[in-house]
């Protein structure tokens, strides 16, 4: 009788658990649908206060999501407590029974307690490196706020950016809620029906690709003054250069693109299904098209970092390397194609900055496309040899060539499977040394060449920085009578679209801080409040910018240095650099993880010249959370 009651109680508990799990999944699905599907396309009154409109959308949807998720967590904890109390009562009653029955009862109680796992204990038990990095970052933000002299300002942040304490805590909460959704990628039972929780993830992925592709496409059309949404009505040419698509300001738009487009690149890179490769290839082409037309130099820094990282990862085998050069051909081909369109429709093309025009219309683009195509064809030969080796070792049939070709068309010939396999196996044994000297050897040589190129690039960066320093300080002029006035080689107040002035001011402000504030900063998103509270700096900024208020350093790391101090910027770098390394290592078991490593890398490189804002930073934490949830999934190695 007691056993029947226990089973009935287990069934009721299991049903409650299923309902709670379903509620969690629906809430998460709704939130991701809003952020990944609706947010990029959402706007009101064209570009009038579009940043504020976007932030309000993010703010409200995130608060609803976090609030409901915390409520569900509270219900879980309460049910766990009620269940444990019930178990304790039963255990006290069973003490009067025989030892054998008591042991059986304890065994049943232990089984019953496992019906509901304690969410807090699970959370603490399953913390990964990335979890700790995000937690430490959250603590540093809280400490910065606690020691700030601008608490009212730091709570929400600078007007128009709103990246204060509240937003940072929302980012952290989003990460931890999403990182616990490992069931999205498993198959589980809902009552008696089989449900594939992964279907939710596939729908969200499709929604994200469609929404972001439309956002990119609107941006490309805007660069040729094609305005299907009427966003450009009443705008002058300067405003059209500055704003595009449904995101708004060009720098905000480029940060969004560089953060979210990597998922499509990786799908094209790893997929074996033809229709997925076609769809993801179209998506990747649109992405490259908007990258070369969005008119922000920061995006080229991001795409450079992304491709260098993907190239290094691809050196592990010939197939990945071959796919990498497919992506490179697509990228340079799209860049060149956009350049052709800009020349053909020059009367409609919006004038862009020097770097954007260089990558679309320069002869260098055609040279890089030709080099990429030659390398693609070169490595294709070795890739086919690798496929042949796989066919031989697996005993599979590969259609004959040579005499089976007629007029360029391959005729499929039925060959005896056993004889064909044996014949090819003998040939493989005889030519083993030649085969080993093929793709394996060429990849070893390629890796050495790639590492040399990386070293030369690093050396070039160092030499360039030294040259900029000597050129700026006047050393070259004094010793050699030469000084470059190139906008990129002379670091003055006008360097990098006037970023030089903000960097100089912010660095000098940081150097003047007391030691304690150098460690913990002046408060979340409180750079503007601090700078204008110092009379000398405030007067200088008014002389330099007039009525325009400087709200951030236009360099996320310098901005974080002032806002969160040395401790905070170290914690933030651990999230970014540690996140790249974390997902890169996971990608050795599952290549799909490179999508998240590249997402972080694109964000980190782009924001050397940019800053946190609502159109990119939420998507970074969403990617971090989803990526971490994938790594915690029981079938991680089989997720595609």
Structure, described:
With 640 residues, the protein is mainly alpha-helical. The chain has helices spanning 2-38, 50-93, 99-113, 119-125, 129-146, 151-156, 165-179, 198-222, 237-242, 250-260, 262-270, 274-291, 297-314, 318-344, 354-361, 363-394, 417-430, 432-436, 439-473, 475-480, 495-511, 515-520, 527-531, 535-545, 556-586, 594-606, 617-631; strands spanning 187-190, 193-196, 243-244, 248-249, 405-406, 409-410. A hairpin with a 2-residue loop joins strand 1 (187-190) and strand 2 (193-196). The protein is globular and about 85 Å long. Residues 1-10, 100-116, 185-197, 397-419 and 428-437 have low confidence and may be disordered.
Largest sheet: 2 strands, antiparallel
Rg (CA only): 29 Å
DSSP helical segment count? 27
Strand neighbour order, sheet with most strands: 1-2
Mean pLDDT: 82
- C-alpha termini separation: 48 Å
Helix content: over 70%
What does the oligomeric state look like here?
single chain
Short note summarizing the structure:
The protein is mainly alpha-helical and about 650 residues long.
Comma- or semicolon-separated keywords:
27 helices, mainly alpha, 640 residues, two-stranded antiparallel ribbon, globular
Give a topology summary.
Blueprint (H helix, E strand, L loop, with lengths): L1 H37 L11 H44 L5 H15 L5 H7 L3 H18 L4 H6 L8 H15 L7 E4 L2 E4 L1 H25 L14 H6 E2 L3 E2 H11 L1 H9 L3 H18 L5 H18 L3 H27 L9 H8 L1 H32 L10 E2 L2 E2 L6 H14 L1 H5 L2 H35 L1 H6 L14 H17 L3 H6 L6 H5 L3 H11 L10 H31 L7 H13 L10 H15 L9
Antiparallel strand pairs: 1-2, 3-4, 5-6
Helix pairs in contact: 1-2, 1-8, 2-3, 2-7, 5-7, 5-25, 7-27, 8-12, 10-13, 10-26, 11-12, 11-14, 11-26, 12-14, 13-14, 13-26, 14-15, 14-16, 21-25, 25-26, 26-27
């Amino acid at each position: 009788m007691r056993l029947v009651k226990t089973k009935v109680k287990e069934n009721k508990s299991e049903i409650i658990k299923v309902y709670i799990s379903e509620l969690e999944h629906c809430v998460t699905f709704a939130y991701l649908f809003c952020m990944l599907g609706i947010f990029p396309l959402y706007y009101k009154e064209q570009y009038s206060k579009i940043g504020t409109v976007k932030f309000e959308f993010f703010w409200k949807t995130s608060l609803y999501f976090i609030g409901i998720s915390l409520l569900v967590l509270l219900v879980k904890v309460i049910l766990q407590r009620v269940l444990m109390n019930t178990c304790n009562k039963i255990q006290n009653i069973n003490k009067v029974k025989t030892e054998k029955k008591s042991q059986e009862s304890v065994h049943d109680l232990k089984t019953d307690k496992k019906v509901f796992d304690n969410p807090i204990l699970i959370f603490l038990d399953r913390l990964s490196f990335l979890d700790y990095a995000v937690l430490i970052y959250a603590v540093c933000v809280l400490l910065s706020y606690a020691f700030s002299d601008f608490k009212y300002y730091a709570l929400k942040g600078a007007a128009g950016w709103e990246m204060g304490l509240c937003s940072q805590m929302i980012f952290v909460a989003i990460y931890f809620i999403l990182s616990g959704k490992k069931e999205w990628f498993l198959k589980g039972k809902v009552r008696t029906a089989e449900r594939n929780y992964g279907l939710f993830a596939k729908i969200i992925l499709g929604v994200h690709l469609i929404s972001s592709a439309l956002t990119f496409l609107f941006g490309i059309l805007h660069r040729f003054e094609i305005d299907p949404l009427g966003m450009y009505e009443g705008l002058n040419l300067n405003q059209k250069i500055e704003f595009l698509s449904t995101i708004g300001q060009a720098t905000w738009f480029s940060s969004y693109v560089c953060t979210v487009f990597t998922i499509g690149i990786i799908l094209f890179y790893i997929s074996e299904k033809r229709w997925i490769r076609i769809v993801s290839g179209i998506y990747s082409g649109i992405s490259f098209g908007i990258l070369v037309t969005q008119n922000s130099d920061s995006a080229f820094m991001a795409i450079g970092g992304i491709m260098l990282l993907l190239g290094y990862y691809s050196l592990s085998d010939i197939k990945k390397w071959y796919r990498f050069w497919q992506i490179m051909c697509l990228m340079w081909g799209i860049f060149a194609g956009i350049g052709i369109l800009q020349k053909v429709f020059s009367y409609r093309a919006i004038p862009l900055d020097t770097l954007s025009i260089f990558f679309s219309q320069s002869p260098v683009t055609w040279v890089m496309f030709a080099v990429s195509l030659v390398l693609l064809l070169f490595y294709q030969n070795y890739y086919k040899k690798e496929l042949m080796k796989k066919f031989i070792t697996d005993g599979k049939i590969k259609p004959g060539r040579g005499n089976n070709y007629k007029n360029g068309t391959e005729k499929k010939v039925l060959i005896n499977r056993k004889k064909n396999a044996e014949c090819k196996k003998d040939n493989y044994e005889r030519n083993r040394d030649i085969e080993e000297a093929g793709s394996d050897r060429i990849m070893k040589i390629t890796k050495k060449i790639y590492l040399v190129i990386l070293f030369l690039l690093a050396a070039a960066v160092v030499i360039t920085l030294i040259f900029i320093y000597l050129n700026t300080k006047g050393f070259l002029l004094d010793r050699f009578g030469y000084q470059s006035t190139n906008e990129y080689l002379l670091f003055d107040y006008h360097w990098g679209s006037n970023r030089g002035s903000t960097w100089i001011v912010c660095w000098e402000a940081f150097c003047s801080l007391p030691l304690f504030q150098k460690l913990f900063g002046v408060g979340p998103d409180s750079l503007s409040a601090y700078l204008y509270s110092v009379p000398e700096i405030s007067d200088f900024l008014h002389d330099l910018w007039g009525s325009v208020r400087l709200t951030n350093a236009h360099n996320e790391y310098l901005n974080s240095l002032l806002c969160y101090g040395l401790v905070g910027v170290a914690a933030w770098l651990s999230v970014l650099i540690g996140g790249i390394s974390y997902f890169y290592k996971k990608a050795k078991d599952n290549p799909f993880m490179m999508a998240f490593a590249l997402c972080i890398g694109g964000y980190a490189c782009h924001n050397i010249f940019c800053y946190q804002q609502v159109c990119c930073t939420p998507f970074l934490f969403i990617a971090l959370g989803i990526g971490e949830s994938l790594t915690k999934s029981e079938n991680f190695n089989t997720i595609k």
